[in-house]
């Protein structure tokens, strides 16, 4: 895997949130390395409310980590 | 994405809770950018008890982050 | 939404737990504002073991927040 | 509801774990106050592996709270 | 229940992880005390990918607790 | 089980994330020790969007632990 996570520090809360999204997607990429298969899955979960809520939950957990790393940007 | 998260600091616990709701919704918006599709999904999950509980769980996780950022408004 | 969360501080652990229940319910109320629809959903999930466990999980997450806010009532 | 949670402090880790189990059950009791209905649900989830895992997850979350309250019994 | 949790302190991270597995299983044992029933459930969930992921999630939550108790073995 | 977790400390955030993936997989290995069975399960969950999201959630929880152990690599 190429280098993709040099740091958990971000300039703003919003960049931290976007890093949390990236963290959430990377576990999928590690588990399913085929970009083709991932592309086939996208149309399914992106139109399923419960799937989207589940994605949002993973982002929320990763955002806890990123926010703590940044001392909540205080 | 436009700027939407300038800070995790809020004046009151209730505003913090409402920010947690926003954080929960934004992951869905990033994953499913189409407002039209999101509008189609709403009637499904808003009448499903388990879907609503799942939404509430994501809000609870995000509220942990917001509450910690605000030192629990103490 | 009316004011409903003036503080996370409670006098006792039990009141804190009951606040966690309230926090869990409010996300549902924000997402499904219709009291009528919510009343229709209640008979479903209150007789489903897995639904009740899911509710209990959300309460547990919110109770972490309330307990931390109260320094665990120590 | 009668008084049932005077404190999060316990003498031992095991008593803390058992308090976490109680905390997990109480949210169910608050949501479904009928002992009769709860008794009907028990035979279902206690023979379902996924239901039992879900119960274990709620206990794990509550145990985090109880353990932190007791400074991990150190 | 016999004594089974004298301490959260372990000599190594790996022993801590194994304690997290034990913590995850004990909630199941408290909820379903019959060793016979638990033995019947095992062949089901141990061949179901989603069940195994759910087990892994409970272990992850308990490992957070054990790791914090041991100050991350630093 | 052989020694597999000497430390939670890693040189970089990315190595920490990869350790979180390993932690997530080890609970599955402890629960289902047969490499053959695990190999049979892989084609199922690696093509199921919800299964992949669930895996990503476990990684996120373990990454919280690893990140805290490393003081967020600050």
TrEMBL record, chains A, B, C, D, E, F:
One Pfam family in the UniProt entry: HTHP
InterPro entries per the UniProt record, alphabetical: Hexamer_Tyr-coord_heme_pr_HTHP, HTHP_sf
Keywords: Oxidoreductase, Peroxidase
Gene3D superfamilies: Hexameric tyrosine-coordinated heme protein (HTHP)
MF (Gene Ontology): peroxidase activity
Protein name: Peroxidase
Protein species of origin: Lautropia dentalis
């Amino acid at each position: 895997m190429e280098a993709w996570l040099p740091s958990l520090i971000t300039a703003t809360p919003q960049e931290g949130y976007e890093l949390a999204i990236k963290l959430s997607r990377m576990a999928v990429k590690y588990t399913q390395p085929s970009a083709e298969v991932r592309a086939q899955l996208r149309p399914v979960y992106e139109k399923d409310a419960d799937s989207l809520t589940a994605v949002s939950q993973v982002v929320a957990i990763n955002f806890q980590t990123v926010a703590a790393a940044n001392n909540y940007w205080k």
